[in-house]
Amino acid sequence: MSIEIKLSRFNRIYRSNEALEGKLIMKLTSSISFQSIRLTVNGTVNLQVRGGSAGVIESFYGVIKPIPIVHKVFEIQSSGKIGPGTTEIPFFVTLKDPKEENREKFYETYHGSNVNIQYLVTVDVVRGYLHKSLSATVEFIIESANDNFPAKPVSPEMVFFYITQDTQKHPLLPEIKAGGFRVTGKICTQCSLLDPIVGELTVEASAVPVQSIDIHILRVESILIGEKIATESSLIQTTQIADGDVCRSTTLPIYVILPRLLTCPTIFAGPFSVEFKVSIVITFQSELSKKHSTYDPKTPRLWLAMESVPLELVRTK
């Protein structure tokens, strides 16, 4: 026997002011009796602190108590009997009643490193003490409700940048420092989650050949622990926009598509916050870089030039 939850939308994306619809599909080899069929909707913000971003005492506790967003239990059917074969039981539940005062805002689904916002729907077929209950769980995705969207489309806010040997706060290889380089361009610092990160970049001068130019998207997650704030940055995605030495004074386009579940609208909540950054990383050709083909992209290296700018993400229609 098997039990499965099939939601009405193939992408499983819903908004908090919409109803969650679907059906419970049961495939049985023989008939069973049940006491009740219950559907539970759970939404939580799960927080954890790693050893590198907090003190010894905070790291000992590790996982912080989850923040509840929603917890609702619905009875789909009371006691009864289901025959052999395939049985489909539809359900229709309201996620957020306008008359209710929720303790927490319906944050968008987000799977981060230390912050995880998740919504689950679980169906339990309770069969009594002598029989094991049947259950199935599936995750559904929450996006901001329409009434929270900006009245007008958000135009990308661009910032101009320039990268030289003098703008780097970390040491560089002597040949890179002495020869010099200059990279200029622009990139958006605010954009819709539905749109790509766009911009352009030009290598105006460089004495040392360029090996690669990459755009990193990073998450910056902060968690309040007592009177302290633990903050940690981690890499989400890397997009290479140039491979090998590039022609000088040639404009290169920047076009980066955002990953859905790994990003969300920028959040500033009381117990936690989720922010984002864009980092432009230029790798120069050197013998040292060949020996270190794998490394932490957030850590400055002698053969790298970097520039980071904050990125605000918003949800639009």
UniProtKB/TrEMBL annotation:
One Pfam family recorded for the sequence: Vps26
Subcellular location(s) per record: Endosome
Function: Component of the commander complex that is essential for endosomal recycling of transmembrane cargos; the commander complex is composed of the CCC subcomplex and the retriever subcomplex. Component of the retriever complex, which is a heterotrimeric complex related to retromer cargo-selective complex (CSC) and essential for retromer-independent retrieval and recycling of numerous cargos such as integrin alpha-5/beta-1 (ITGA5:ITGB1). The recruitment of the retriever complex to the endosomal membrane involves CCC and WASH complexes.
PANTHER family found in the cross-reference section: VACUOLAR PROTEIN SORTING 26 RELATED
UniProt key word Metal-binding: no
Record's protein name: Vacuolar protein sorting-associated protein 26C
UniProt GO cellular component terms: endosome
Residue ranges of coiled coil: none
Record keywords, A-Z: Endosome
Key word Nucleotidyltransferase present: no
Annotated source species: Forsythia ovata
Family to which the UniProt record says this protein belongs: Belongs to the VPS26 family.
Subunit structure: Component of the commander complex that is essential for endosomal recycling of transmembrane cargos; the commander complex is composed of the CCC subcomplex and the retriever subcomplex. Component of the heterotrimeric retriever complex consisting of VPS26C, VPS29 and VPS35L; within the complex interacts with VPS35L. Interacts with SNX17 (via C-terminus); the interaction is direct and associates SNX17 with the retriever complex. Interacts with SNX31; the interaction is direct.
